[in-house]
Amino acid sequence: MSDRLKAGNALRRKVLGDAHVDRAEEGKTPLDAPFQDLITESAWGNVWASDAITLRERSMLTLALLAALGNFDEIPMHIRATARTGASKTDVLEAFQHVAIYAGVPRANHALRLARETFEEMERSARGETEGQG
C-alpha cells in the first residue's frame, strides 16, 4: 500500500467516519477494488489531504460542485461529513446559493432538499430516534 493510499484511507475515515468507510470496504469486489483504491489515493490522499485550504472549505466546495454538476447521490454523504469538517448549515446554504446563481436554481433547490433531509436525519439519530418515531 502506497503512502498516499494510507494517507487517503486515514483522511477518508476522519471526514466520512469509520462506519461509512467500513461499510464501503466490506462492499468492495475484485471488479471495483482498483477503482476504489484510485479514488482513495487521488481524491482523499492527494486533493483532500492538501493543507492549502481547510476541510470546512473543501466540504463547501465539494457540495457546491456535486450540486452544480447534478451529482446528487453523494450529497447526503458529504452533508453527513460536515459534522467532522466543521462546515455549518449556514455554510452549506451559502454554497448552494452560489450554485443557484452560477449553475441553476433547480440543481440548488434539489441539493438543498437533500441537505435538509440529511440534516434532519442526523438530528433524529443524535436524539436516538428512528424513522417513524417522530
Provide the descriptors you would attach to this structure in a database record.
134 residues; mainly alpha; 2 domains; 7 helices; 74% helix
Architecture overview:
The mean pLDDT is 95. It is built from seven helices and no strands. It has two domains: 1-52, no CATH class; 54-134, AhpD-like (Up-down Bundle), CATH 1.20.1290. The protein has helices at residues 3-16, 18-26, 33-47, 55-68, 75-85, 89-102, 105-126. It starts with a helix and ends in an 8-residue tail after the last helix. By secondary structure, it is mostly helical. Helix 1 (3-16) crosses helix 2 and helix 4 (55-68) packs antiparallel against helix 5.
Protein topology:
Layout lengths: L2 H14 L1 H9 L6 H15 L7 H14 L6 H11 L3 H14 L2 H22 L8
Radius of gyration: 16 Å
* The CATH superfamily title of the largest domain: AhpD-like
Given helix and strand content, the structural type is mainly alpha
- Share of residues in helices: over 70%
Strand content: under 5%
If helices are DSSP runs of H or I spanning 4 or more residues, what is the number of helices?
Answer: 7
Q: In total, how many beta strands?
A: 0
Mean pLDDT: 95
Task: Catalogue the unreliable spans.
Answer: none
The first-level CATH class of the largest domain is given as: Mainly Alpha
Major sheet details: none
How many discrete domains? Answer: 2
- What is the CA–CA distance across the termini? 45 Å
CATH architecture of the largest domain: Up-down Bundle
